[in-house]
Design goal:
Helices cover 0% and strands 58% of the residues. By secondary structure, the protein is mainly β. The protein has a single domain, classed as Methylamine Dehydrogenase, Chain H (7 Propeller).
């Protein structure tokens, strides 16, 4: 779970990223169809959520509207961790194969910077 101002962000095994009202925790603000077994992170400006999961894709979401901003990238195996870096300009993704695989993408251009 991530706390973002007046909201709570969770992910579930059914493939949804859920954004809840912190003042009324039973109030669902957005339910985003993301990935099976999602991993999530929030940028430092608390405006974007990055998600990844078993489907091997990395998606970027607008926290306020719940809209999908785009698919940032795709890796070769299920994602283990997603993390914003450098004030939300970069996204680190970590996948697990025989060895750990880490990739970094620029969020604005969605260009892969480095692999493995």
């Amino acid at each position: 779970m991530i706390v973002a101002g007046s909201q709570l962000i969770t992910s579930d095994a059914a493939g949804f990223v859920c954004i809840w009202s912190k003042e009324s925790p039973s109030k669902l603000v957005h339910r985003l169809k993301a990935h099976q077994l999602s991993v999530i992170d929030l940028d430092s400006n608390q405006k974007k959520v990055v998600s990844g999961g078993k489907d091997r894709t990395v998606k970027l979401w607008n926290l306020e509207s719940g809209n999908l901003l785009g698919q940032v990238g795709e890796v070769t195996t299920a994602l283990w961790k997603t993390r914003f870096l450098q004030d939300g300009r970069l996204v680190l993704v970590v996948a697990r194969e025989e060895m750990m695989v880490m990739e970094i993408w620029e969020v604005d251009e969605c260009e892969e910077l480095s692999c493995r």
